[in-house]
Each structure stands twice: as C-alpha cells, then as structure tokens.
Amino acid sequence: MNIALVFAGGTGQRMKNSAKPKQFLELYGKPIIIYTLEVFEKNDNIDKIVIPCVAGWEDYLRDIIKKFNITKVDKILTGGKDTQESKMKALNYLKGICQDDDIVLLHDAVRPLVTNKIIDDNIKSVREYGNAITAVPFSETGIISDDREYTEKTIVRNTLFIAKAPQSFYFKDVFKAHQLGEKMDYRITIDTCSLMTELGVKLHMVQCETTNIKITTPEDYYVFKALVDLRESQDIFGL
Q1: Chunked in runs of 10, what are the mean pLDDT values of the chain (239 residues)?
Q2: What values do phi and psi take at 134, rounded to 5?
Q3: Spatial separation of the C-alpha atoms in residues 102 and 8, rounded to whole Å
Q4: Can you tell me the distance from the alpha carbon of 35 to that of 26, in angstroms, rounded to the nearest whole number?
Q5: Side-chain half-sphere CA neighbours of 219 within 13 A
Q6: Nearest-5° angle of CA 77, CA 62, CA 20?
Q7: What stretches of 23-82 show up as alpha helix (H) in DSSP?
Q8: For residue 56, what are the CA distances in angstroms to 8, 67, 77, 87, 227?
C-alpha cells in the first residue's frame, strides 16, 4: 500500500493573511490544498491519503474534499502544536493501518505543483533504494556566513541540491526515525530529510522540476498562478 501523508497544519503567517490558512487560499475558485490532493487522487499508485489539518479547519476541509470529489482521503487528523507533533500524530494513526513495508510519501499541502512523475519516481526509488528525497540542483553560488554579514565560505553549486517533497520511506523506517526525533533538537526534526541524515541514513535523491514550489509567501502565490496559467495555455494550444 502507498499512502500520501499531506500536511495541512500551517497557519500561513508569512502570507500576511490572518483570516485563512495558506493551504485554503483559492485560485480560480479552488483551494490550494485541492490542487495538491487532486494529483495524488488521480495517481494510480496512491491508495490512501491522510491529512493532519490545522485545528479548527477540519470540517471545512471535509466539505471541500466532498465538493471536489476527492475520494482517497482515509483520515483527517487534527494537527499538533508543531510539525514534529503533527508527524507523530499521523504516523501513530498509520501504525494502525500500515504494514512495515508500506510506502509513505510525506508532502506539503501547499506544494500543489507536484506531478504524477514525481510521485511515481518516489515510489520506485523507495522500492529500489529504501527511500526517496525529491530534490532540485542548486542554481546559485552557496554562501556560508556565521554572522549573516560577512562571507565565511562559498560552496561550489554543483555539489548542492535543495530538498523538496515528497519525501518517501517505508513505514517502519519513517516511524522509527520520528520516534527517535522526539528526543532530539526540534530544528533537526522539522524536516524528515534532515532527521534521517542526522540519524546516519543514506538517502536517495529523486530529481524534480523547479516548478515544484512551496507556497509560503504572497510572491509564491503569484508564481503558482503564473505556472497554472502556463499549464492551461500548454493544454489549450499544445505548446
């Protein structure tokens, strides 16, 4: 079984919009989270979707899932006070329905431009290598600065990649890692890739398009809109 764990627990403070969490902001009458869920819904390899949701928005999420006919959602959970707690809540729920070798894809609700290919490549990578970290090559020169004012060191960009999502694992591995993560520095455990690396796990990268963006700021929202418009034009005009 392949399960998409789609995190919708953020409040969207960087979107400068206190009325509605960022995952529920709409583009052309459709919430961002629905764009995300539709990709997993239509992917033949995904069996179930589980969503940790920001507290107080669970009923709204159920309503829009019904409205947009998302049928693979198995469970909506109330998210925790932080990312680590939300992940453990979700993983503890999955413990009741998963076998050790089921594959879990961890994804952000506000990363709606994920593609079928990325999902399929993640699942294939887990089966072949035991895990998958979606990533893109770093396109600029990396700089290290301890004081945020002066350059300490530069890093050759062809050795750098940016971790994105999904991040995918066998259930037994990701569950064990986050159990250990509860006892570690929260800055390490926020991201599963960082946690696994800290635990000494060698991770296999799956490269994706740079368009697989995470919407966290107003600027990201308008980039998302432009990319959706571009895809629409490509579909209409066969570009």
Answers
A1: 91 58 93 97 97 94 96 93 86 94 97 96 97 91 82 81 94 92 69 89 93 93 92 63
A2: -70, 130
A3: 22
A4: 10
A5: 0
A6: 85
A7: 32-42, 58-67
A8: 12, 19, 11, 18, 31
Strand-strand pairing, 153-155 and 142-144: antiparallel
Residues 6+ apart with CB under 8 A from 103: 1, 2, 3, 123, 126, 127, 168, 169, 170, 171
67 Cβ neighbours under 8 A, 6+ residues apart: none
199: phi then psi, degrees, rounded to nearest 5 = -85, 0
Signed CA dihedral, 171, 177, 182, 186: sign only: negative
pLDDT in tens, 118-133: 999 999 999 999 999 9
- Among residues 34, 25, 29, the alpha carbon closest in space to that of 72 is found at 34
